[in-house]
Amino acid sequence: MIDWIAPALLSPFLFSIVTLIDKRVLSEFKIPFASFNLFVGGSQGTIGLIILIASPLSGADLLTVFSGLSIGMLQGLGLVLMFWMLNREDPSRVVPAMQTSPIFVALLAWPLFGEQLSALQWVAVVLAVGGGALASVNLGNRASGPLFRPIFLLLIFSAMTMATSQLITKSVSDDLATTHIVALRGLGLFIVMWTIFARPESIRGLIRFLSNRRQAPWLILAEGVMPFAGHLLIVTAISRGPVSLVAALWGTRPIWVFLGSLIGSRVAPKLIYEEFTRQDLPLKLASAVMVTVAIVLISTS
Fold it and tell me: Is 113 exposed, middle or buried (0-12, 13-18, 19+ CB in 10 A)?
């Protein structure tokens, strides 16, 4: 069991570091948002192409290859919708809605893969999802207005694209090597990001940013090297364990962001751009307890 639980936890931990670095890249270094997304897609697409050149696909049919590409395309679409909503709405509403993704995975994994969860495992899924959502809520910056508007249905659709990508990952894990899944995912992400954001000014902005020797390494680390490693870990976990429980553990990323922010604000406050107030702390601690209980339940059930 540890062979899938360990990578399922290491992946969101790694991506929490990515999130903290991204905040610095976007907030302090002021890279244009479109240029940032071009690098996100371009870096993963380049790594994917290198992998496929070094280790060509053999024996995979066109449907399997397209399925691998669709993983990145769905995730790219989901990310674009999430970022668009973050520019319009309060993050304390956007991120919790995105955290519903593991619920969709758990509901669909049963008819698709025969994964039947026990009562305790369902409790663990709900605790993991709820803990991740609570970790994203900022009581000190509550948004005004109605709690739900029709536009929030886009977030449900975005969560479903993420869930679908994880289900597809599970379905192709027997036909493709882990590195090939990650490679095809990177190429799919490249297709979506560059189709949406590839404009002359965006490309020039990316080139200008990468020419800065002080700032560029942060972006290369956060959106080049670390996401590749993080996706290797999560694909490994999905291929070895039940996707419904892996998705629940992957959804704990916000709590790792909180813990990283809490520690980083003490150790290296100039590097941390995640903010929370005293009134947020009890909620964050409650989310940490929920996630911890979920991990214990999953690892012992």
Answer: middle
The yes-or-no verdict on residue 177 having pLDDT over 60 is yes
Amino acid 60: pLDDT: 86
Is pTM, for the whole model, over 0.90? no
The domain ranges of the chain are 2-300
**HEC secondary structure over the chain:** CHHHHHHHHHHHHHHHHHHHHHHHHHHCCCCCHHHHHHHHHHHHHHHHHHHHHHCCCCCCCHHHHHHHHHHHHHHHHHHHHHHHHHHHCCHHHHHHHHCCHHHHHHHHHHHHHCCCCCHHHHHHHHHHHHHHHHHHCCHHHCCCCCCCCHHHHHHHHHHHHHHHHHHHHHHHCCCCCHHHHHHHHHHHHHHHHHHHHCCHHHHHHHHHHHCCCCCHHHHHHHHHHHHHHHHHHHHHHHHHCCHHHHHHHHCCHHHHHHHHHHHHHHHCHHHCCCCCCHHHHHHHHHHHHHHHHHHHHHHHC
pLDDT in tens, 37-94: 999 999 999 999 999 999 999 888 999 999 999 999 999 999 888 777 766 665 556 6
